[in-house]
Amino acid sequence: MAGSEERGESPASGSSLDEHLRVYLRDESLWPVLIVVIAVAVTLGAALLSAAVVLGNLAAWGAVALLALISLDVVQRDLRARRLGIGGRLVLLLWVASAGAAAAVIAFGWV
Fold first, then answer.
1. pLDDT in tens, 13-25
2. Residue 101 in contact with residue 43, Cβ under 8 Å?
3. Which positions ≥6 away from 93 have C-beta within 8 Å?
């Protein structure tokens, strides 16, 4: 089988996070799906952050560290291309929203 370089495609062709997200942004009928996925990600992020901070749960800290490394990789790839694409912006939005939700949960004493 010929590799992607031999076919004249770039190695990342079709596998970029931005390209996958553009499908959801172009088709308006998929916006509710995107909103639900974002809401679930923010909820899980807030749960992990609040469990790590308030309860000191080591598994939660490990999950937060792993997600932070994955997030840094996505943002770093975008910054290497000298632009912050859809994926990088979404990752940053998810972290900010998760931190805000975790702060609200902690402030209201729900943990």
1. 435 888 888 888 9
2. yes
3. 38
